[in-house]
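Data availability (excerpt). The following record was deposited with the supplementary files.
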Amino acid sequence: MSAYALNKLLREVNRNPQTRERFFQNAADVLPQFDLTDVEKQAVLTRDIGALYRLGVHGLILRPFTLLQQMPEPDYLKAIRSQ
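Predicted structure:
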């Protein structure tokens, strides 16, 4: 797994307006810039927050990512707590 690359991708989406715009237009176009496994790519593309958390995305990166998608806190907490 490449938790570092996964965190780096989501951090870049969170902080860089150009990357964020490209990501939300077509996430698949942004993924080749990062060394992700197929499982990680799938979790990003499907916005599977629980899987992203289990794959090692830090909460301080994951929560802002979900806020960009207007995910309510109870839904976020449920996603990261589900096994």
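Summary of structural features: The chain has a mean pLDDT of 95.
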